[in-house]
Amino acid sequence: METKIEITDAAAVALIDGRIDTVNAGDFEAALKPLTDDKVMDITLDCNKLTYISSSGLRVFLSLLKTTKSYKGQLKIQGMKPEILEIFKMTGFAAMFNII
Amino acid sequence: MKKVLNIKNDIAEITTLAAFIDELGEELELDMASVMSLNLALEEIVSNIILYAYPQKMSEDIEVIALETNGSLIFTISDNGVEFDPTKVAEADVTLEAQDREIGGLGIFLVNKIMDEVNYTRIENKNILTITKKIK
């Protein structure tokens, strides 16, 4: 798994590549932390290359959502594969997130 | 068809587990979405064992047996750690708003959603979890 961050003005796009599982969810969380530390107002998670996610990864998504909401920032998810979207639907995450 | 995987209670073994499930999926010619959901169910169970079953963190064994029979795929996961029945865990409430969501409970919720049957028994100081998915 690799998370590449692209920042322009007040917006950031995180390109997630690979799988997020129990082994690397902590790395994923650490990669995103600078964005919420800086209170970036507009964060997009690009999931085009996200191939797998387990509950440990979902927890990072949830905590990122809670943190961005706490400073009134926007969090969007784009390019999610159907099978990943299915997991988001199953867990009620699809209703919580702005999926574009 | 029967396949056996023996792993240690080390979180890096999740990668070994994923390779085992991918291989199984190839042999049984399962579609990608099914392989992913099986991977997910197994990871949730095995990571729970790795993280919580052995508080002393010693090198302990976890066994995963996959058996394909009569159109069903049956996984038996056993460990000799702390007694833990995942079928008794309170499921996450997936209807709550983000701010009310608790961390935890999601793993077992996913297992129950993905698999058709989830059964737990404790025999001779072993936790034995049997999970079944109809594949045909």
Strand content of chain A: 35-45%
Category by helix and strand content of chain B: alpha+beta
Average pLDDT reading of chain B = 93
Q: How far apart are the termini of chain A?
A: 22 Å
Helix content of chain B: 25-40%
What class do helices, strands and sheet pairing of chain A give? alpha/beta
Low-pLDDT ranges of chain A? none
Strand content of chain B: 25-35%
Structure description:
The complex is a heterodimer of chains A (100) and B (136). Chain A has 100 residues and is α/β, with parallel strands linked by helices. Helix content of chain A is 42%, strand content 36%. Chain A starts with a strand and ends with a strand. By secondary structure, chain B is of the alpha+beta class. Chain B is built from three helices and five strands, in the order βααββαββ. Chain B has a five-stranded antiparallel sheet with strand order 1-2-3-5-4, with helices on one face. Chain B is globular. Chains A and B meet through helix 2 and helix 3 of A and helix 1, helix 2 and helix 3 of B.
